[in-house]
Amino acid sequence: SDCGTHNVLVGDKLWWVDFEFFGWDDPVKLILDIMLHPAMKKDEESRSDFLTAARSLFREDIYFDERFKCFYPIVALNWVLIVLNDFLDVKEKVSTIFKCDDNDEAISRQLSKARDYFEVSRSRFESL
After folding, report:
1. Residues 82-92: pLDDT tens digits?
2. Who's near 42: CB < 8 A, 6+ residues apart?
3. Which end of the chain has fewer CB atoms < 10 Å from its terminal CB, N or C?
4. C-alpha–C-alpha distance, residues 15 and 80, integer Å
5. Does the model's pTM come out above 0.85?
6. What are the φ/ψ torsions at residue 70 (nearest 5 degrees)?
7. Are 68 and 32 in contact (CB under 8 A)?
8. Are strands 8-10 and 14-16 parallel, antiparallel or unpaired?
9. Are 68 and 75 spatial neighbours (Cβ–Cβ below 8 Å)?
10. 96, containing H or E segment
11. In this structure, what are the phi and psi dihedrals at residue 100, rounded to the nearest 5 degrees?
12. Residue 66 pLDDT > 90, yes or no?
């Protein structure tokens, strides 16, 4: 979607520019990306505090919670798929990406990481 015509400037060349971070994206998606990013190592209390602050910031948005609950599984699944992206062209990439000579071990580790992330995301969603 970032390579769509909505991000293209036309001149002597085509230039792709991503302006989502200037407010075009739904703030719910940004909040979820922050909360769900696999590298974000925060405890549940910190996540809850962040969500409380976000809800307060967007308290006039009457559909915030509804969109949050709708987007949550989609954004979480998106992050699972991003983790699994490492399997693309796995024969060429695996030893470089995972810094490992054993392809089976590297694949198993990444698949386990995606599975664990999915389960954590699912349990968080169920507790909303």
Report:
1. 888 766 665 55
2. 50
3. N
4. 30
5. no
6. -75, -45
7. yes
8. antiparallel
9. no
10. helix 90-98
11. -150, 140
12. yes
